[in-house]
Amino acid sequence: MSLPPGFLDELRSRVSIAQVVGRTVTWDLRKSNQGKGDFWAPCPFHHEKTASFHVEDRKGYYYCFGCQAKGDALTFLQETQNMSFMEAVETLARDAGMQMPAREPAQRQREDRRATLAEVMEKAVRFYRMQLMGSHAAEARAYLDRRGLSEEQRERWEIGFAPDQWQALNDHLKQAGVPEALIAEAGLTTTGRDKSRPYDRFRGRIMFPIRNTRGQCIAFGGRAMAADAQAKYLNSPETPLFHKGANLYNIGPARTASGRGQPLIVAEGYMDVIALVRAGFEGAVAPLGTAVTEDQLRLLWRMHGEPIVALDGDAAGLRAGLRLADLALPMITAGQSLRFALLPGGQDPDDLIRAGGAQAMQSVIDNAVPMATLLWDREVQGQVFDSPERRAALTKRLKTLCGTIQDPDLREQYQREFNDLRYQLFRRNDAPRGGKGGYGTARGRKGAEAPLPGTRGSFLAAGAEGADEELREAVILAVFFAHPVLLAEFDGQLMQLETRRDDHRTLLDLLLQAAHEDPAPDHAQLAQRGGDALAALMRQPHVTIAPMLRPGADLGFVRQCLATDLEVLITRRALKRELEELSAELDSLPDDTLTYRLGEAAAAFDRAGRSDSNDSTTDLGEDRASLSAHLQSLIDSQVWIKKKRRPGPG
């Protein structure tokens, strides 16, 4: 609707902004000068305790010296009550006794029709409310009792009951003078094969009125009492009043609560919303029998920049949350996103509040995670990234996700976030590269002392040079469980350790978690957490004979053994990976780059092999000599030049 020139100016001149604002705030009478139209109060926008919110009634403006909020009476209604501009205009016009501008005939006809249908819906509300008090609704009342809804709560939400009869509501409304055509247009009746005999759409159901932002009843949601009902919940169809994808249950009160600073919480169903509001979370809404739509997202963001989606703590709830995140991703902007509250143990908000009270729900809300975290968890959950192909596939999926974000600045922030998370995930598997692409820094811990004579030969002084890497890995893990006081000292090397077996990976994760939780983890508690996997590890023959696991082993000796063998194991695997990468890149890398990288690898390989010990040349295993010779032969023969010059077919 267009407004004629001068209408808004006259409206502002007729309305006292002090009266409009005074319905929401409490004036500081010591600071205010009412005679001059000068008013002060604590700010309603950032909920302060001091009076820095200033209203000049004669000028018709407000300003907060704390948060810099400013505007006129229309702005105030829009910001505090989440009204649209036209809703604020209509509200002030009613207060000022001004007639809204005349509408076009077609528009007037549509609005009159909608008003008539809204009256029909109110008659239906009263009918269903009366039916809930009857003897045929005993089972419905018992159900509401079990769900903890008192009579006061039923009245607050106007809950009713549709009797299990084919034409109870239709007959009632006809007797009240409502034409059958209007009843059907309101979505209250439907027809079968016999189009001439309409019957009630809702039968044998607990009824929840659905109201719009103006408080009009526009639809119903009905919960079936019969266990064999085709649909547990049934909503009104699309009507001139109701569009499922463009409305939300409890939207009016939630909009007001959100405007007062309460969180906006998106739950799954009617009972969840009722439970949340009853527990003090008045900004609760729910979609209407469908997944959240784009229109509903825009509606939510008009009320709050970051609604919290309360996900039921089961697989279906998580899937619904992920679908919503995918829907929202192209639409998010700076200051317009979602957070996700993950409820525990298969519970919904109603279950959680009944079990743990409002505090339990508040804790879940306080721990709501950003949308980026939810999407990241989906991409990595239950997967192992132990190969370049798997890592590349993850990178590709994350790039695809980020590519759907339309806001370029936000897209860049998501890319950075995913890159950081990916680095944290992979750094346990990536040995640190030194210099210009080599592994010269693979020796790890700063200030590591030279190995003691008793550690020569390595494999934790067990005399098992050249043993399988998994055996060396097993002994290292066992030693840390036996001496958890060393975890903090070797945390960096443990993060680099690539475990090849699932049981070893589980134990390594336990060690890393313990190191991050406590600088000196309790030995008994750590062993208990290791469970069967640790017990099986400790029974392995090469573990039982390790000197570091003998009672009374010297801690300095254990420390030196760990320093040597972690360095050996990490370096060996890093060098093997370097060889594999270089072999795969013979055709693409420049000759000088290949020569340099092979030389660096050979030097690092040699340094790790010497390990400051006269007899530890076998520290990298029996294949050290062959690996070293292979490296040197590649350097001497410059095989990549021959490969590149090899004539092609034809």
From TrEMBL:
Keyword Ribonucleoprotein applies: no
Domain Toprim: 262-343
SUPFAM superfamilies per the UniProt record, alphabetical: DNA primase core, Zinc beta-ribbon
Zinc finger (CHC2-type): 43-67
Molecular function in Gene Ontology: DNA binding; DNA-directed RNA polymerase activity; zinc ion binding
UniProt cofactor note: Binds 1 zinc ion per monomer.
Domains (record comment): Contains an N-terminal zinc-binding domain, a central core domain that contains the primase activity, and a C-terminal DnaB-binding domain.
Entry protein name: DNA primase
Catalytic activity: ssDNA + n NTP = ssDNA/pppN(pN)n-1 hybrid + (n-1) diphosphate
Family membership: Belongs to the DnaG primase family.
Any single Gene Ontology cellular-component annotation: primosome complex
